[in-house]
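Hello, quick one for you while I still have it in my head. My current little project is about how a certain protein chain folds up. You're getting the sequence in one-letter code plus the fold written as C-alpha cells. Would you mind checking whether the C-alpha cells look sensible for this chain? Here's the protein in full, and shout if anything looks odd to you:
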Amino acid sequence: MAKKIVCYCQDLTESDLIRAIEEGYDHIEMLKRYTGAFMGTCQGKMCGLNVLKVFAEKTGQSIEDLRVPTMRPPVDPIPLGWLAVEDE
C-alpha cells in the first residue's frame, strides 16, 4: 500500500492521522498537538485542507463545521552559538 502524505512539512501520512484519531485524539486541536499537523514551516497553508478532510471523514463531521486550529507564528530561531557563549 502506498503512503499517502498529508502534511509534507511534518511528513505525516494519512495512516498516521487515522491512527492518532483512533487512539482518542478526536478533537482537531488535540490532533494538531499530538501529530504536529499545522505546525510545520507552512503553518497549515499546504496541508490544512488535507488534514481537515481526513479528520472529517474519520470522525463523521463535515469540513464546514470544523474550526481551523489556532495558528501561531513560528518561534524566531537563534544561532546555537548564542547559547554556548559564557558570561564574561
Notes: The chain has one domain: 5-84. Residues 48-59 form the longest helix (12 residues).
